[in-house]
Write a structure and sequence with these properties.
- By secondary structure, the protein is mainly alpha-helical.
- It has 25 helices and 3 strands.
- A 3-stranded antiparallel β-sheet has the order 1-3-2.
- The protein is flat, with a radius of gyration of 31 Å.
- The termini are far apart.
Length: about 500
């Protein structure tokens, strides 16, 4: 079984966490109804792995969903894993069906071969771009429906030269972003695809429905990408942009947008920003109302009722730990929310009792002191702790010291710039050039300033200047490399004479 197929389930079997989440009141049926396709399967399998309370039901639901599709590898792996985890409790109805598996595999192989042959035929016959694109889209969409997102991604990139008109270009970017979601958001080109959207989106309402719906989907996907990398601030801004018109259960639900956006914002925004971007945002407020208690928690946080806010946050913890995307970030996310709350709470005070702060935040004195020590060590809080009196005291910034430091830094930068300028003038006077950057970029720059011409580099009288000798060495004339090395040595000697 390929590692890719294992990752499509969530975590590979040998990477499963040993920590099990106890959540007796978890309503699996009500939770999972908001999802479809591969996302639904992936979430069900993850929940089955970490929550013993609903393990049997989750495996059964996942196997049922898999039998609606054509992903026989994932089906085989899931049934085997379910048997290992729950044994005969799984039930014969959800056991391995060899005849179904072979039939679906044969059907998939035949269809894939036919679609690939059709695409190859159109390309071989040099048919119109429209015909090639129609065959390519049919092939890619079949691969996606079959759960083979890696192959779909490969086909899109192999045939990218055929995506010539704006509609087709955006189709490729959208497809690659959707594939990346199901490949655990490991595509480093996600930001590139996301950045292409504004250029073409206005012309695609007929292809993707309303422009707002397409925008919402892409903002949500990029939000998941930022979240997967622990970039909570960027993720919060992306989810805040999602329109309530979003309707893509194969990727994310509206409840997810509310929870992801709110928690990421609490971990990165100031309280005034929370009020403006969440509570006063008509669009995002609609998402928040779908999750009971979410609005109250944010209001308590803004009003410095941290004990209530953190109690509500703790109640959400089991749900967060069962969430496919949020689970691995839950600990760090909650920690950042707590730390940011402490920073904002202490900011207006010159000193505060640790016991009083512990009461406000609903933690023990020892935990409060540990948090303060961590924040002071990171310089997030400018303070010191009076360990005898158990008081945290704000440390005023030394404005005079800061001014002197900035002045010295500015002076040092000026001196360095002046030295660089003198060196450049000396090099130009001696007709020398040092190549530091990439070949194409530097060649273009030299042509712009007139150092390198379009001819063979001959100067007046047929001689070659030092800069052209070095440039030709860099760009492939090996005969002049020895001369270029001599020039570099001369430049280094000149630098020594100037600054020794």
């Amino acid at each position: 079984m390929s590692e890719e197929k294992k990752r499509l389930n969530g975590v590979a079997k040998d990477e499963k966490t040993s920590t099990e989440i106890s959540h007796p009141g978890f309503d699996l049926k009500n939770y999972i109804k908001d999802y479809a396709g591969q996302t639904k399967i992936k979430r069900l399998i993850y929940i089955a792995r970490v929550c013993p309370t609903v393990r049997v039901a989750a495996y059964r639901s996942a196997i049922t969903e898999l039998r609606k599709g054509r992903d026989t590898e994932l089906y085989t792996q899931t049934v085997a894993e379910a048997r290992e985890m729950v044994g005969n409790n799984l039930g014969d109805k959800w056991g391995f069906d060899k005849s179904w598996c072979e039939s679906r595999r044969r059907e998939y192989n035949e269809k894939e071969i036919a679609l690939e042959h059709k695409l190859a035929e159109h390309r071989r016959e040099e048919d119109t771009t429209e015909e090639i694109m129609a065959a390519l889209k049919a092939y890619v969409e079949y691969l996606q429906e079959s759960g083979n997102f890696r192959e779909a991604q490969t086909k899109l990139r192999e045939n990218q030269d055929y995506f010539r008109i704006e509609e087709d270009k955006l189709y490729r970017h959208v497809c690659e972003m959707e594939n990346s979601v199901h490949l655990d958001l490991n595509d480093s080109r996600m930001s590139h695809h996301y950045g292409k959207f504004p250029k073409w989106s206005r012309r695609l309402e007929s292809q993707y429905g309303t422009r707002k719906a397409l925008e919402a989907k892409l903002h949500a996907i990029n939000g998941l990408y930022c979240l997967s990398r622990g970039q909570f601030d960027s993720a919060a801004h992306r989810f805040k942009l999602v329109s309530f018109e979003i309707d893509c259960p194969t990727i994310i639900s509206k409840r997810d947008v509310a929870i992801y956006g709110t928690l990421c914002a609490m971990a990165s925004f100031q309280r005034a920003q929370l009020k403006t971007n969440l509570l006063k945002s008509g669009e995002f407020k609609k998402f928040m109302l779908l999750v009971p208690g979410l609005t109250d928690m944010v209001q308590n946080f803004i009003q410095c009722k941290f004990r209530l806010a953190f109690a509500q946050l703790e109640q959400m913890k089991p749900d967060i730990q069962l969430d496919y995307y949020m689970a691995k970030h839950q600990s760090r996310l909650f920690e950042k929310i707590h730390e940011l709350a402490v920073v904002q709470y202490f900011a207006p005070f010159s000193h505060a009792k640790i016991s009083r702060m512990a009461t406000v935040f609903g933690v023990s004195d020892a935990e409060m002191e540990k948090t303060l020590v961590t924040l002071i060590g990171r310089e997030a809080v400018k303070a010191r702790i009076d360990n005898f009196n158990k008081v945290v005291i704000s440390v005023d910034r030394n404005s005079r010291f800061e001014t002197y430091r900035k002045a010295l830094d500015t002076g040092a930068a000026y001196v360095q710039d002046l030295k660089n300028l003198l060196l450049r003038m000396s090099l130009q006077e001696n007709d020398l050039l040092v190549q530091l950057t990439g070949r194409t970029q530097e060649k273009k720059r030299m042509e712009e300033v007139g150092v390198l011409s379009d001819d063979d580099g001959s100067g007046g009288g047929g001689g070659r200047s030092g800069n052209n000798v070095l440039a030709q060495c860099v760009y492939g004339d090996d005969d002049d490399c020895d001369a270029a090395k001599d020039i570099v040595s001369l430049e280094l000697n000149l630098y020594t004479l100037l600054y020794r």
